[in-house]
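Sorry, explain these tokens?

***
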Amino acid sequence: NTLLDSEEVAVLDNTKPLTWKVRKTDGTVMEVPSICIWLPPPDTESGEVALVIRKKLLNAWAALLSKSRAWLVSCYTAYLRSLGHGSVFGSFLNHLERASGDILIDVEGRQQLMNALRVVRNNLVAC
């Protein structure tokens, strides 16, 4: 196997200082003297273009996440509002408040329950 002048190859392994493992375009893998391989300088323009594209993609994802977050907040807010107004959950809270005297004989426990129910109602109304 020989390497022709100006033949393009893929460098597979360049860990040895004197010989590198390369793959030719026909798939042949061979070791050649490292001095026979010319590596072009990095393409800085391509790197800059890649950074611009990456920034645009990240901004697009950020905008999509922001819209999704706003949609979720809107949905949950509407859902929680519906829970607090005449729904099954609101009826449950009303029933629990009325029955708390029968459920809890302990005045301190009853007061804690009433405070917790008040917080839940206020949070539901605030939504």
